Amino acid sequence: MFDAAPLWATVILPVALVFAAAVTAGFDAVLSASAARGRSGSMREMGTRAAAPLREVLRLLVQQPRRTVAADSALGRTGVVLVPVAAVLAGAVLPLGFRSVSDPAVGIVWFNAMEALAWAAVWLTGWGPNSALSLMGGYRFLAQGLAYELPHMFAITTAALGAESLRVGDVVAAQDGLWFAVWMPVAFIVYLLSAMAMSFWGPFDHPLGRDAAGGAAAELAGVDRLVFLGGRWLLMVVTAGVSVPLFLGGGHGPLLPAWAWTLVKTALVLAALVAGRRLLPTLRMERYTEFAWLVLVPATLLQALVVAVVVLNR
Amino acid sequence: MSEDIVFWVLAVIAVAAGVMVFRFDSMARATYALLLSLLCVGGEVLLLGLDYLGVVIVLMMTIEMAIMAVFMVMYMMNPAGLMPMSMLHNTKGAAVLCALVFAALATGILLVRWPARRGRPPTDPTMALGMSLMGPQMLTMVTLGMALFATIVSTVVLATRRGRYDRFGDDLRSRPADDPVRGGGGR
Fold this sequence. Notes:
The complex is a heterodimer of chains A (314) and B (187).
Chain A: E1 3-4, H1 8-37, H2 43-50, H3 52-62, H4 73-90, E2 99-100, H5 107-127, H6 132-163, H7 168-173, H8 180-183, H9 185-198, H10 222-247, H11 258-279, H12 285-313
Parallel strand pairs in A: 1-2
Helix pairs in contact in A: 1-2, 1-10, 3-10, 4-5, 4-10, 5-6, 6-9, 6-12, 9-10, 9-12, 10-11
Chain B: H1 2-23, H2 27-47, H3 51-74, H4 91-111, H5 125-134, H6 138-159, H7 164-168
Helix pairs in contact in B: 1-2, 2-3
């Protein structure tokens, strides 16, 4: 039932992801402004608030880049650029309805490999400027990676196990009728947590924490900052988007066409992630590491065991 | 044709990045040059049609190098490892060893009688590789895995300074646990 997407989809994909990221950032800006200045009185006011990220983009485009003493700009730039590149490459297996740019037999592993590139990218960004605060941010993200990556891997493995395939298309096909989120709730929740953690968002934004003057992004200005922080929104859109084929039935649903279901579900997951930042305070990583290793790893392993038993008895 | 081009581009980048590991004077650059080299190797494995192995090489090596960079920087002589340093040690001895190993390998390549191909490549090479590695030896592999894991756990238990009696008291009943870092699971 999965069709190969036409070649132009490869060109459309980054554009669509950037558009989705801009809409999400606009939604977040509206929430931020409402929290700070009260509800908006008119639609016009709402529009102005939603356009705040776009104004920020224009501001960053004309801002001077910052130079630091003895910076390793080759590595720093690599890290900055790698964040959006990894997000878009990971998005190649993201299906819209029942079509994705590419549906390789090992799509889930591909997604995981690309997000691991983003892992390295944040450390490189922190290392590059030769600045203590940004280096701290980079180290914080590596610690965060050690905390979230194992439960995350077990969670996506569970989805693959339920479908008996690493192909994203097969995982979607296996959810015709019953969504994986329904009978793999632990894996789904862990996936959502790690989706926030890998886009260093919400309670997991310690690597970019205010206590470290912006952490890994402390020394970034101008286009560098735009690419890095924009890449973070792309990562969030892609990871939220992949939760839909993995756990929420992909394009399956009544009445609406498949692509519309994908968009609706992705939008709901993104809204939950954006709201998550408001509801939860920033976590220090040594606390989350202990929770991840003592609670989440056993919980996801048990979830995988349950799924394995069900699959074997089918 | 296009596969040949991709093969050679990846091969040249892999070797060049491998050389640069020893030319850079920065730990971070050396580590990420090594990562670039290994990513190209992953690409070559993908070219061979071993999709799973190729992507897993990309995945594992990225995480591995990210962690390795931190450890290498951590053990350097200057704080945060921000000062330049050389990756070269014992250059003359290493050069002699490398020349000898290269000569031995090259002689081997030239002298050995290469077998002609028999049969066809399997439809799923990853599966075939797994079966030939694991198939009859599954019990061995599982036992070996358990033994390795037990070794890791016991090494950590032996090496750690604080044991459970430090954390939970003599009768293991004191709550909350006495940890140097507060917070996390159970507290």
